[in-house]
Amino acid sequence: MSGATVSDLAPLSISRREVLRNLGYPRSRQPSPQVDRALERLWERAGGLITPRGIHRVVGRALALTTGLPDPSEWVGIAVCTAGAELEREEHRLGQEGQVLEALVLDAFGSAAAEAAADAVNLLLCTEAQRRGYQLPPRISPGYGRWAIQGQPDLLGLLDAGAIGIRLTEGLMMVPRKSVSFAVRFMREPQQGRAASRRCAACTLEGCLYRVEDGPDEQEMESQ
Question: Which domains does the chain have, with CATH numbers?
Answer without folding.
Answer: 5-222 (3.40.109.40)
